[in-house]
User: What shape does this take?
Amino acid sequence: MFRNLINQIHRSIGSPQLSQQIRCYAKPVTGGVAGVETTPADYELQKEHIEEAVKAQPLLASVSPQLWQKAHETFANHGLNTNSFLQIVTCNPKVLMRSPKKIIETLEHWRSCQFGEFFLFQLITKYPVLMDVDDKRRLLKQITFLQGYVGSSKNVWKLLMNCPTLIEQSTEAIEAKILYMKEVMRLEIPEIIKSEALSKSLDEIKCRHVFLERLALFKPRSPKADPNEPSKNPRLYKITDTSDKSFATKVCHVSHAEFEAFKELYTRELERQRKEEEDEDDDYDEEYDDVYDNKELYVK
Assistant: This one.
């Protein structure tokens, strides 16, 4: 569900119509950050703003002017200007239906992540669906977990700017992907942070990596290699942040059809491996049960 909403937001952000409509009536994001000059006009909601937002997002047509003003005032009081407000509610109309108290609670949840106001406003403006987060304890637990791998709250923010679905992913799934990229692909954390790799499934990452390996286009760096020496491998963002067609033709230099055929075969290969692992586990359990039963007989 969350991933689908993120994909919808990406499409909305990429819509020239929406971008132009928002920019027509609102100034660039300043967010009330110290050192950035703002004017009262940056925090005023005009009738024209609402009309243009409704054109871009028809679901907003049923919202009363009172709800518009109340929500806008709440965001403005917490430092988000009209431009940010319009982008958030256009991509996530449910925000307008919330009480000021609920909006403030969500903003405070995110403030507790200590990204800083400027970076926080950038994050929720880019991904308004993050305003749906309502479990502070779970959010902080996830942020702390991510920080354990990437080292700072600023790096966690960078991760979320590329992979907002990390908020809902299980720690086990995230850890498996990070360990695969670090230990198998031998990539450094900064390269992982700069990509959207963690928004993909482990199978997707493995599939593209293995395909490159079998084409002799990817070789893990030696642990003794100079970290300052440029790698000849494709950069991670080129591997994971591209469409299947671009990955095949521009990164692997093969046809799209060839990569599609490999994906199908590799899926079967993974299924076969998992089946074999399950059979081995079943055999082990049976052997353990036999040994245990024999011990009981011996004791008797």
